[in-house]
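hey all, quick one before standup. I had two proteins in the batch that finished overnight and I want to keep them in one place so we stop losing track of which output belongs to which input. First protein below, input sequence then structure tokens straight from the run.
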Amino acid sequence: MKNAIKRVVVGLAAVLIGGLAFIWVSAYWTYHTAKERLAEFKELDLSKNPAAQSEALHRKYGTKLHPLENCTQGLCRYEIDLSNHFVAALHIIPYTEMNIRFTMYEGSLDIAMLE
């Protein structure tokens, strides 16, 4: 009987530790991704060749980079989203979302907005 109780306690402890590790990793991933994306858009603004930097962002993010309206050759507005929807679906922590919207005008970053 004592062995069964020990197994239950060890099993519950393992589940608790695993759950806490999952939450920590998810929170860290969200933080790291947000920090990385903000740095990329800051680099886009400071770049000597913003057109090449913009193209690199298009290659990296692909379908995650959403045009907001009809783009012309000289002007295009984009949005990229970041959220913790996966871990928030477990109802352990609240849902958080970050949107980055930016406008490229003639190959250069014109406006960037974090929401």
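OK second protein, same deal, sequence then tokens:
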Amino acid sequence: MSSKYALRPALVAGIISLTGCATTPEPVGCPPLPLPPRPELPIVQPDALACLSDAAYEALATRDAKLQAYAGQMKAVILTTRDNAEN
């Protein structure tokens, strides 16, 4: 056996023994994210929607409801980055 191969077991044993001394890093949390202000939505008068078909009105109402739900979900995600959630 040549001398370069004779050192391999000792090298492997040394590397394995040193990995036991490695420490696990502490998990780093996400810094608190700012909560952007809610935009002021324009008020739509009922007579402005009178020209819409029932299908278009339903689509608009569904779209608005989904956007409101999405905004609520994003607020909840942002508040999870804080210690004490603000409403």
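Flagging for whoever picks this up: The CA atoms of residues 32 and 80 lie 8 Å apart. The chain is about 50% helix and 0% strand.
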